[in-house]
């Protein structure tokens, strides 16, 4: 029997994250969004408090908390601001391939570095011509003796302009499609070039950049897993990180729901608060139900990982449903606010913009449906994850 009753330790962890979001993130979130500035001070405070690098195993200096515990943190911090949470949480995405495929030496070097002081790592998979279609990537890694020479460009890279290290996917066999992809850890100082920062619709407190690799030499020991097995590593990584993205979407939706509910009780029209009108009540009720369902799917997908189970299908369920819920709830929150919801002076406008990316990165909602369909219609046996990815 599955019991989602949180332990006292989990409740304390969630309270810690909520307090941090309420006191450190919420008061400045709309300012960071307006200016599109980098939240360095908040990241440092999150690192000091132990809210970063939560999935790094204890033997490499991290807390090694459960995936479900990580989702509790991610929902709360996204309730504060999902853009800032994206900046805080990016290391989890970038380090997952290291944890899953790195040698013992690579794990100790790079995972250890992230826990010794505030350092950042970016996940570099997406390219201008290779988003959901990973096999279309053009970045190459050619072996020269004991090194690989990497050439290419990656776009939509979270924390790309500030990262110290990059997990980079490149073709080691140009003619083999997704079967010719390998993954590497690349240090910024080896010649990584940050080409530009993107000016985004939402999550403006997170840095999203294009980065290039021009004859960047990478030691062969920095190969993650086996050569030409990088696609499987990337898909397994996304199985591990999509519960966290679903938790973020749930946090956005919850924030919008709370703002809309409070506003509906205060805004008077036709002589009564609009919360007294059935049309508004039904919107609020639908929001509440969708958020509860999104959270339960998220927790189930995380718990399966914690139990050592394959979660490809359920993580796609969770990510797709929570992302679509965030978009629907924030849209309806703007509706509850009426014309005021369309004005930047009111909070739901930002949440509406932030929610959209949840349907796009780490696999679009359409790609999630493709994965769900393939997994659901496949024979009842262990399947390889369906081809899917999106912006890092």
Mind explaining what this structure looks like?
The chain is an alpha+beta fold and 392 residues long. Helix content is 51%, strand content 15%. It contains nine helices and ten strands. The strands form three sheets. A four-stranded mixed beta sheet has the order 1-4-5-8. Helix 6 packs antiparallel against helix 7. The protein is globular and about 80 Å long. The two termini are 36 Å apart. Residues 383-392 have low confidence and may be disordered.
Outline of this structure?
By secondary structure, the chain is an alpha+beta fold. It has 9 helices and 10 strands. A hairpin with a 2-residue loop joins strand 2 and strand 3 (147-158).
């Amino acid at each position: 029997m599955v019991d989602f009753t949180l332990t006292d330790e989990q409740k304390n962890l969630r309270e810690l994250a909520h307090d941090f979001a309420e006191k450190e993130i919420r008061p400045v979130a709309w300012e960071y969004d307006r200016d599109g500035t980098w939240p360095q001070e908040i990241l440092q405070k999150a690192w000091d408090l132990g809210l970063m690098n939560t999935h790094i195993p204890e033997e490499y200096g991290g807390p090694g908390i459960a995936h479900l515990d990580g989702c509790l943190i991610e929902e709360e911090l996204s309730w504060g601001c999902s853009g800032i949470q994206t900046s805080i949480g990016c290391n989890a995405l970038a380090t997952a391939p290291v944890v899953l495929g790195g040698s013992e030496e690579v794990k100790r070097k790079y995972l250890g570095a992230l826990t010794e002081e505030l350092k950042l790592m970016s996940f570099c998979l997406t390219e201008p011509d290779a988003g959901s279609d990973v096999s279309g990537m053009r970045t190459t890694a050619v072996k020269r003796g004991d090194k690989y020479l990497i050439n290419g460009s990656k776009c939509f890279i979270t924390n790309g302009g500030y990262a110290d290290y990059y997990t980079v996917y490149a073709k080691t066999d140009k003619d083999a499609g997704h079967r010719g992809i390998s993954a590497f850890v690349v240090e910024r100082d080896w010649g990584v070039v940050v080409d530009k920062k993107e000016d985004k619709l939402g999550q403006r407190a997170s840095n999203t950049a294009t980065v290039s690799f021009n004859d960047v030499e990478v030691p062969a020991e920095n190969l993650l897993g086996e050569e030409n097995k990088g696609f499987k590593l990337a898909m397994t990584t996304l199985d591990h990180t999509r519960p966290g993205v679903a938790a973020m979407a749930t946090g956005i939706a919850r924030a919008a729901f709370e703002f809309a509910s409070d506003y509906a009780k205060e805004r008077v029209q036709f002589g009564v608060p609009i919360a007294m009108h059935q049309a508004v009540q039904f919107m609020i009720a639908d929001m509440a139900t969708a958020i509860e369902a999104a959270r339960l799917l998220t927790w189930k997908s995380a718990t399966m990982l914690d139990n050592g189970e394959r979660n490809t299908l359920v993580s796609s369920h969770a990510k797709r449903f929570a992302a679509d819920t965030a978009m629907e709830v924030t849209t309806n929150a703007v509706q509850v606010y009426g014309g005021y919801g369309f004005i930047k002076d009111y909070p739901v406008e930002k949440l509406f913009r932030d929610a959209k990316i949840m349907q796009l990165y780490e696999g679009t909602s359409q790609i999630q449906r493709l994965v769900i369909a393939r997994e659901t219609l496949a024979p009842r046996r262990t399947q390889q994850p369906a081809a899917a990815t999106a912006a890092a």
